[in-house]
Design a protein that fits this description.
Layout: H1 3-8, H2 12-34, E1 35-46, E2 52-60, H3 64-75, H4 89-109
Antiparallel strand pairs: 1-2
Helix pairs in contact: 2-3, 2-4
């Protein structure tokens, strides 16, 4: 069992948070195994803060069993469709990858297990 989860086993809320941390770390590690990154500086757009940003394309090729696992992990971070939310499923999944990555980094900062990016 993950040390993050062992430490939280007496508190149900902390246990759930630790489980999400563990899922995030595992999801990022899976994604890192098969990802190919492509920056598109030609698609610079201003961010909400006015700073320039760009489009980052991620493509991952994973074996079928790892793809199935990653899809289930990503579902934990994907917002369900809501009335008035105009994002497509692909956009919600992209937001979920960002949320999962942030959570994995936060878990590492709190002393959790680091995702393997090798």
């Amino acid at each position: 069992m993950s040390s993050i989860i062992e430490e939280a086993s007496d508190d149900p809320l902390a246990f759930g948070e630790a489980a999400l941390d563990t899922l995030a770390v595992a999801g990022v590690a899976l994604l890192a195994q098969g990802v190919r990154r492509s920056d598109r500086p030609d698609a610079l757009v201003p961010g909400a803060d006015g700073a320039e940003g760009g489009v980052l394309d991620l493509e991952a090729r994973l074996p079928a069993d790892e793809h199935a696992l990653f899809t289930r992990v990503l579902a934990a971070f994907t917002d369900p469709p809501r009335r008035g939310d105009r994002r497509t499923l692909g956009q919600r999944r992209a937001d979920a990858v960002a949320a999962m990555s942030r959570r994995a980094l936060d878990a590492e900062a709190r002393g959790g297990r680091r995702a393997a990016f090798d």
